Amino acid sequence: WLCQYPRICRRIVIPAALKWEIRDKLDQAGITERVLFPGLDGLSCWLKRHYSPRR
């Protein structure tokens, strides 16, 4: 299906240096692991990221 409609889906490559900045912007917009993956899995991913030191 995606081969028939190539304009619908695009790949976006984010440089590693911008990873934390983009995650901060998504957090401000309310888009977190808890929202994308409801349940314990999403919550545990969010907690791990939230309490990890930034690199």
List the helices and strands and how they pair.
Elements: H1 19-28, H2 33-36, H3 40-50
Summarize the structure.
The chain is mostly helical and 55 residues long.
Estimate the global geometry from the Cα principal axes. extended
The run of helices and strands is HHH
Uncertain regions: pLDDT < 50 for 5+ in a row? none
Task: Round the mean pLDDT to the nearest integer and report it.
Answer: 84
Strand content: under 5%
- Main sheet overview: none
Q: What does it look like?
A:
With 55 residues, the chain is mainly α. The chain has a domain at 16-50. It contains 3 helices and no strands.
Name the features.
55 residues, 3 helices, 0% strand
